[in-house]
Amino acid sequence: MRKLHRAALLCVAAAVSLTACAAGSGNQAGQSGPAAAPGRDDEFSLTVWSNYSGREQDEVTKALESFKQKFPNAEIKHEGSQDDDKITAGIRGGNPPDVALSFTTDNIGQFCSSGSFADLKPYLARDAVDLDQITDAVRAYTEYKGTRCAMPMLSDVYGLYYNKDMLAEAGITAPPKTTAELLDFAKRTTKKAADGSIEVAGFLPSMPHYANNPQIWAPHFGAKWEGADGKSGLASPEWAQMLQFQKELVDFYGHDALERFRAGLGQQYSTDHAFHQRKIAMMVDGEYRTAFLADQAPDVRFGTAPFPTSKPELYGTGFTAGTIMGIPKGAKNPGAAWELIKHLSFDTEAIIGLANGIKNIPHTKAALTDPRLEVDENFKTFIDLATSDKLQGNPVTPIGDAHIKSISDFATSWQSGKVPDLMAGLAEVDRRIDDQIAKSGK
């Protein structure tokens, strides 16, 4: 599961369709008041859609099956390789699932402001749920302007991965803490062939690529998405510094050489991933990569650390995103759907089991400190980031991820040398984002 992500990179949808005549069929999503819950011994069927596959789908299925401890007569069918587009089509076509799980936290503003996902506050109030159980950054990216239309299911936290052998070969004894050090270490660990082609990149600066996304990089430069006036605030010294950092490394490699190198790299979640194949020495990625490395590249000696920052006082900052769960508009059995969401949101045993299974970060404070959570040296980096007060979540707007796409497209043009004036270009991106939000009517 890679919210964002895999968040902005991989969309995951899980839907729960509850059929059969159970007590608690109750009100439909979107009607006034919370729908009644099913009785413990009622029979109902749950169909879960998700974009999980392979070992992750198996682990999520185990978590779903744990729901039967509370509702033993529930039948659960988990179908993988589904996505957000199918959820949207289901809502529009009047045949939505009853629960939707999505990795696309960028879309929470759209889901909440449009009413695509039901407001969960009536359920939370009825069941006296204490949201303080959830860490602050995770709470922030699962609601929009006071509307809570989703709940979290685990989270991802991003940091630095580095190949210990490659850094040691370059005479580097500790991972970089500042972006200036990252530039230096990237150049020292890069290897080029006699013809100038890149054999190993110390740090790949291309954006977007792998987890190189603006929302993941921005916190480490102190870059904010909004200005004091509430409008898009990308035309700032911090965003400019982030893109100048990127461009310096692109220029070091040469844009064309870098593109040729990048074209030969494996996909993000394949065994041919560049870090697995020792093609890059350092990268930003989520805690889930520890499981992929253990499974697909056990011989790679790696370490993890907080990602370097532009200023020393920012060190220890981290970005987080995660799976979100909601009840789509028109759901047939919102009462039972809420019970499943509540189970996956707050049952510590279920959260710990799933976190251990797919190596994601628990989203509740209790699970983060539970001794049953499997934490080795490399995973601890992300646990420490998750429990710090420097963790930042996804920017939330009513236009989904359109603002992220705008700055990503700009970064692509910038790194290729097509932007003559950086600040003027960023101001134009701000204008486009503000226009899109204004047109959304939200």
TrEMBL record:
Keywords: Signal, Transport. InterPro entries: SBP. It comes from the Bacteria. Residues 1-22 form the signal peptide. Pfam families: SBP_bac_8 (PF13416). One of its GO terms (cellular component) is ATP-binding cassette (ABC) transporter complex, substrate-binding subunit-containing. GO terms for molecular function: maltose binding. SUPFAM superfamilies: Periplasmic binding protein-like II (SSF53850). GO terms for biological process: maltodextrin transmembrane transport; maltose transport. Gene3D superfamilies: Periplasmic binding protein-like II (3.40.190.10). Belongs to the bacterial solute-binding protein 1 family. This is Carbohydrate ABC transporter substrate-binding protein (CUT1 family). The lineage of its organism: Bacteria, Bacillati, Actinomycetota, Actinomycetes, Pseudonocardiales.
